[in-house]
């Protein structure tokens, strides 16, 4: 029970700070679970992120479920998921009730504008930490560059990017394995 | 009761056919307007609000539309609908993945998926930069400076993320609200 409560409270806090499409939840999880508590590695966090992003539904819900499941099974997943949605849901309920007052409030708008300037740095700082664990073999750099191009210029869906990455991963590993056998 | 079921089902459809982020908007818009739960204008407002508040767009829309259509119960039911892929499909995937974690093939697959994910996140960052530091087509210098300060606080001083976000909110009130930059 205490594990479920711990997960719920941690994701409650993450949920309160998931600005910018939810990517900052990955940064926050990295801060707590990879750097401080060392429960998971950068590699595992990247795995959870890419799977969560490529399944249908809400990315951070999926990431919460995946992480919670690893820590404490299905109930752990539910604890993380409910923790994650609690604060955003309360905030939105309040906003919906005071919709018009909120809409035109200059102080709220300025605070949010300030927060938006921090979102890219937050995600960037997490990404820089995870880069090392993502590039096992030299061709991985090419994959990252190519997927950036497909995402940014061609607006290809993340689902396809992950599928393409998976196929390339198999091919590259196969190639290196054969090469290794040849040189024996 | 029927209304709650309808809300739930609408968001189940939205949840299962969308893959996060802005890809949800056309779907949400069609479902909300056809049921009369939100107007087209409200849909565009909620997109702006969802960007400003924590939590993903899909869930924020679910809360907003659910509240409008059926109060608190509506908000909860709509959220559960939007999250339905998470506690069904994703839960199954988690069982599968945790079971085959040490499998060699899965390891090979993830060798390619991880850099793909890095490339994608890099794209997301560029997207965010283009939106958050540009105003009316021009680079907004005070925002850029604040962003650089945030980055230094994170990387150099290892300040925690919630602290950085709260500090930026205060800086935003001072710079953009009080000083009107």
Explain what you see.
In chain A, α2 (24-36) crosses α6, α3 crosses α4 and α3 packs across α8. The model of chain A has no long low-confidence stretch (mean pLDDT 89). In chain A, 83% of the residues lie in helices and 0% in strands. Chain A folds into 2 domains: 2-132, no CATH class; 135-184. The longest helix of chain A is centred in the middle third of the chain and has 39 residues, at 59-97. With 184 residues, chain A is mainly alpha-helical. Chain B is mainly alpha-helical and 181 residues long. Chain B has 2 domains: 2-89, no CATH class; 111-178, no CATH class. Helices cover 80% and strands 2% of the residues of chain B. Chain B has helices at residues 2-17, 25-35, 40-52, 57-82, 84-99, 104-132, 141-155, 161-178; strands at residues 134-135, 138-139. A two-stranded antiparallel sheet of chain B has the order 1-2. In chain B, β1 (134-135) and β2 (138-139) form a beta hairpin. The termini of chain B are far apart. Chains A and B meet through α1, α2, α3, α4 and α5 of A and α1, α3, α4, α5 and α6 of B.
